[in-house]
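Input set for joint prediction.
Command: fold jointly, output tokens.
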Amino acid sequence: MVLQSSERHYRDWDHRRLGPWCSPTGSPAPLSCETGCGEGSWILVCRLLVPTQVSLLSMEEDIDTRKINNSFLRDHSYATEADIISTVEFNHTGELLATGDKGGRVVIFQREQESKNQVHRRGEYNVYSTFQSHEPEFDYLKSLEIEEKINKIRWLPQQNAAYFLLSTNDKTVKLWKVSERDKRPEGYNLKDEEGRLRDPATITTLRVPVLRPMDLMVEATPRRVFANAHTYHINSISVNSDYETYMSADDLRINLWNFEITNQSFNIVDIKPANMEELTEVITAAEFHPHHCNTFVYSSSKGTIRLCDMRASALCDRHTKFFEEPEDPSNRSFFSEIISSISDVKFSHSGRYIMTRDYLTVKVWDLNMENRPIETYQVHDYLRSKLCSLYENDCIFDKFECVWNGSDSVIMTGSYNNFFRMFDRNTKRDVTLEASRENSKPRAILKPRKVCVGGKRRKDEISVDSLDFSKKILHTAWHPSENIIAVAATNNLYIFQDKVN
Amino acid sequence: MLSKGLKRKREEEEEKEPLAVDAWWLDPGHASVAQAPPAVASSSLFDLSVLKLHHSLQQSEPDLRHLVLVVNTLRRIQASMAPAAALPPVPSPPAAPSVADNLLASSDAALSASMASLLEDLSHIEGLSQAPQPLADEGPPGRSIGGAAPSLGALDLLGPATGCLLDDGLEGLFEDIDTSMYDNELWAPASEGLKPGPEDGPGKEEAPELDEAELDYLMDVLVGTQALERPPGPGR
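tokens >
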């Protein structure tokens, strides 16, 4: 039996040895084979941003974008709306990190190779490839503009020298192939010096072209376009563990695709009511089980998760399991439903748990227990008393994502003011960190942040009313096997790493 | 789409009071919301929700999740403002006092029509043609009564005042129709189920003119009723 890649990473992770973690008082925390999120141990590796100009250059002139990265990207801060990062995803080995932005572009970063000369550069990511995945479109039939913003990117496991990823906007999913070219055939005798085709009558010898090395070029080509299958906005895509199919989910429907077939998809979930005025619930996220290719989950705007088995029927409108936590009467308000709306759902690498993110909490559910989550973590409970204002400025509708670390022992999610939070499931410790230019010098240890809810504000604490709600961390990613995280803040991509001695 | 032609009165924006005034349940002393949900939503919250709904509908392709969440929240608010079970349906409008002001100044019909038509349009996209009548094409709301049964859900929801959409005000809409039949059906209670139900009688989205004396009387009734009544909790 071929070991699934996610399983392999999970096992490898158990055997990794980490350096000692320091608690804030300076004394080393207990050594653990599993990763902890120990306060004060994260350092900024690099901050990356990709202004629009770079991609134009690379598209037109085939310039190796890696050369540009070092001199160009790190310090410039021209930010346009198109540069806002809308999705972040590591590939299965963690060697590549892909980002999608509002302008429809995909930028792939590659990890710097380890070398004896430049040990300190290990863990840094540089631009590997940039391409325009989606263009703005106009649907003439409905007189609607289709946004080119990349909603999600998902990598396929690597099966040959090339890399494949799926990227999607609101309506269309595309399969991209990213491959390297470092040789060029030379010695054709079919063309003259100017490149014009020679008259075949003048060619008297047979010459076989020779492959000669050339500067590395990374090219991205669209291999498949999966279009016209979604009436509503696509919010999720998920690659199946069979590596032959994937699903795409919009507000009301989920479709199953085969990678080879672009003009057909199977509809596996349809929650559209016969009468649209009876619509009270939409699909918010969906994901396949990491190992069981027949199982998937989808979450709803009412805070429920449904697990479905595709073997049960062709249309999985009837769930196999239904996860919902009863409402806490003491916390009930007019906004209860909005804050219960699930913005992200992720299976653990082990496949035993699912994690959901709603507006104020992250919850971990055991697949075998449907009536309540096994763990609930408060992300920013101090916002509970501000819901009305957050409703007014629409922040209450923000969709935060959540991620597992490679060993499923730590979960991470974003918040406001460029804060992001990590929760260690084993030690029950949590930490708040900040991804911002002002507070991060490269290689300096990140200082834990604290929000003061009332009463006396200590030095270094920030009061709730001073939080900047326009600076939200919606998208984060965790390396599949190491303690390297990518955090997207507007048009900046921060890469942090644990400090290992 | 219908929503493109609609205008909104500027008053609507200025009406939105600072929420701090009404937001007694946001007392920072409470770690969470009060033990029980507030008995009555503030009218500004209602107005805000209606405004959001209107904004959402004005998009050429509204965010369905946002729309559904706002609509559901609006239903909750409306349910708390309009305890359906308690009041006799015919003469007593259940809306909160300030909503009555809005009602006089605005017409809900166009908004509800646009919402209904939007949701209908979403159905039409797929070629499903179960939409019974072109509600969007009707101007005066009176006309829409007859075949309006399936759309009543939306209209029901937006029964009391909604955003001001038409510049010429309420009177202009009703000039050519006789609404005397519907005068008493104005304030049909929002049914707690979300189904469009004709059981509350036709014409409940009507907004016939009320003179001031009647309005004062109604307000007294309301305030008196609300003090006594405990609203049912919103169903899940």
